[in-house]
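Students often ask why we bother encoding 3D structure as a string. The short answer is that it lets us treat folding as translation between two languages. Here is a chain of 106 residues written in the first language.
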Amino acid sequence: MASTTVNVADNRELRRLEALLEDGDVAGFAEYRIDLDDRFEFFHTEVDERFTGQGVGSTLVAGVMDFLRKEDARIVPSCDFIRDYMRKHDETHGLLADGATLDEES
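And here it is in the second language, the structure alphabet:
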């Protein structure tokens, strides 16, 4: 199967980062809330089943991390997928908001 080219863009109106294909189709998204301290809480990540197993989710979360760096923002990772990604990528740990952890939520 051919490689899927994905660009990650902020859709501020819908409060989510989207994994966009070259034709503009949304292959996946990561939803967020912004709290009073301007921290981004990412609470849900979803990839269209047509693109499962093609690296779209990992590309999307890498794009989330790039977005946070560009915005000089911090993350509260409430989404399991994002927490799992961050656990495997030590270079993302500096993006954690004060008090946020990569532990499972209870």
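Translate back mentally: The mean pLDDT is 93. Keep this in mind for the problem set.
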